[in-house]
Amino acid sequence: MNLVAKDVAQYLKDHPDFFNQYAELLAQISIPDPHGGRAVSITERQIGALRDQVRRLEGKLAELLRFGEENDVLSAKTHRLAVALARCGDSASVFLVLYAHLGGGFAIPHVAVRLWDVPGNPEALEFQPVSAAAKDYVRELKYPYCGASSWADVEDWFGEDGKGVRSLAIVPLRDEETTFGMLALGSEEPERFYPGMGTVYLERIGELASAALTRTLA
């Protein structure tokens, strides 16, 4: 019978008392040190493996702590935005709050709002015409779009500085199932808004803005 490595490994897994029965083997077997050329005992190798595992776990824990801290910061910023929007008595105040908090607290360099099929000042930037293609695209979004900036008309909404935008987030504004606008966020950093990034806070911001606008525009 020819044994292969996986057969030996499986046998040892199936017989955890093997080295209790043949304890002397532990002192006789030596294996290569992965961090050097010398041979080490199984016990030393196990200790080294445990140390490597501890280092990996410490790295994961540090990463989780960092994510937790970042989420705490985002949660606090979102809460402050919610409180400010709750105090707004008209849509103009809502726009000012969105621009101030997203551009200030969230440090998003370019922010634009566009609305349609709702009452408002036709001369205000927020009520300027939006292409039918853009409206249709936003209506179909289940989650905010994050990715490369390929919307020339949206870049124009950011003014002259919008030409340098390299990443974009598009957040639908909805009253229940009816899409009545969009929140556009732009950055010169290509990785600020990227495909596959988490959009939970963008969704919450969209819901807060939608609720404030629905209330004040009514």
Description:
This protein is an alpha+beta fold and 218 residues long. The strands form two sheets. The chain has a four-stranded antiparallel sheet, with helices on both faces. Strand 1 and strand 2 form a beta hairpin. It is elongated and about 90 Å long. Helix 4 runs antiparallel to helix 5 (91-105) and helix 4 (42-86) packs parallel to helix 8. The chain has two domains: 1-87; 89-217, 2-Layer Sandwich (Beta-Lactamase). The protein has helices spanning 5-14, 18-21, 24-28, 42-86, 91-105, 132-140, 152-157, 200-217; strands spanning 30-32, 39-41, 110-115, 145-148, 167-175, 178-187.
Blueprint (SSEs and pairs):
Blueprint: H1 5-14, H2 18-21, H3 24-28, E1 30-32, E2 39-41, H4 42-86, H5 91-105, E3 110-115, H6 132-140, E4 145-148, H7 152-157, E5 167-175, E6 178-187, H8 200-217
Antiparallel strand pairs: 1-2, 3-6, 4-5, 5-6
CATH class of the largest domain, named Alpha Beta
The total number of structural domains is 2
Strand content: 15-25%
The residue fraction in helices comes out at 40-55%
Estimate the global geometry from the Cα principal axes: elongated
Order of the strands making up the biggest sheet: 3-6-5-4
Q: What profile does the largest beta sheet have?
A: 4 strands, antiparallel
